[in-house]
Design a protein that fits this description.
Helix content is 40%, strand content 18%. It is of the alpha+beta class. The protein is globular and about 65 Å long. It starts with 19 loop residues before the first strand and ends in a 12-residue tail after the last helix.
Length: 323
């Protein structure tokens, strides 16, 4: 009987932050005290950030504040879209845009000065046909559906950012056939070729943005596409390898900081010990594991070399590297 991973937990959409007003920060001295934490999102509207937060979390929080500010000022019919919608659904994102993206059914009727406000406060309006099928509400906020969001991101974001969103959507049981249909309905629009590539590369087995980006790095350096979530029977029970190749028994494990911080329950040393024991149990079954982390995503050459060394002598199908 084929082993199956447990279903992922449901997506948890974030709550839009409450915004501070100039009236709630009454004196210049107080504003000076908060200078490192305050971000102006609209005239007279501010949000706060935690200087200790990781950059990606701080960027997401500022984007959510800009979305909240946009909601307070827009009176036309709209749906947040692209990576703004991805953030509102709780999907993974990578290098999140600073801009709020929303879709309207008709060209926006804005005066020139309003247009400048849109530019200054990071708001981009798109207009296109948006079928009822592709509209939804998340916590009362109008957004494009997960399938439409994944399709739009696949067309218009960078390839790595688009793949992260698409993998997460499929991981959480988005309808792949519907996404393909939405992409096909966009024939003639910008980014359709990339969108089809993103969907072909996407894998519901990815369990984190780091795993998605690692898989992309592996294929971009000319290696065969790896499988995801490979079960291995060990003395410690069934363990799952993030991605790899079963024939040569070479696996790749992505080490994100979250397992040693947010998921560590205050004991990162215990997590590292369990991870080491797991690693040793898998290698005892004949596997060669290559570990990578976020620095390898930005500079993949060394990672490529380590993977090829792990595969050398184990796999006759290893392609030659084009230098």
């Amino acid at each position: 009987m084929e082993l199956a991973r447990p279903a992922p937990p449901p997506l948890v959409p974030p709550t839009l932050p409450r915004l501070l007003t100039a009236r709630s920060i009454p004196d210049a001295e107080r504003i000076a005290d908060l200078e490192d934490e305050l971000v102006r999102v609209r005239p007279g509207l501010f949000t706060t950030t935690d200087p200790a937060s990781p950059v990606a979390i701080a960027q997401r929080d500022v984007l959510l504040a800009r979305i909240a500010a946009a909601r307070a000022h827009l009176d036309s019919e709209y749906w947040f879209s692209l990576d703004s919608a991805a953030a509102l659904h709780g999907l993974w994102t990578y290098r999140l845009s600073r801009r709020v993206h929303l879709t309207q059914l008709y060209p926006p009727q804005v005066r020139r000065e309003d247009d400048s406000w849109d530019h200054r406060f990071h708001l981009t309006r798109h207009w296109t046909a948006l079928p009822l099928r592709d509209r939804t509400l998340v916590n009362g906020v109008p957004v494009t559906t997960i399938e439409r969001t994944a399709a739009d991101c696949a067309r218009l974001l960078s390839l790595p950012a688009a793949l992260v969103v698409m993998d997460c959507a499929l991981h959480h049981r988005a309808d792949r056939e519907l996404i393909a249909r939405i992409i096909d309905e966009s024939r003639g629009k910008r980014g359709v070729v990339q969108a089809r590539r993103v969907l072909s590369l996407a894998d519901a087995g990815s369990e984190s943005p780091g795993e998605s980006l690692t898989r992309l790095a592996v294929t971009d350096c000319g290696l065969p596409r790896p499988s995801t979530q490979i079960p291995v029977e060990t003395t410690l029970g069934t363990k799952w390898i993030d991605l790899g190749w079963e024939e040569p028994k070479v696996g790749i494990e992505f080490d994100g900081e979250v397992k040693y911080t947010d998921l560590a329950d205050g004991d990162p040393d215990a997590v590292r010990r369990r991870e080491r024991e797991r690693h040793e149990a898998i290698e005892a079954e004949g596997w060669n594991l290559v570990r990578n982390a976020w620095p390898d995503i930005d500079a993949p050459h060394g990672f490529d070399v380590r993977v090829r060394r792990a595969l050398a002598g184990r796999w006759r199908l290893l392609p030659d590297r084009d230098d």
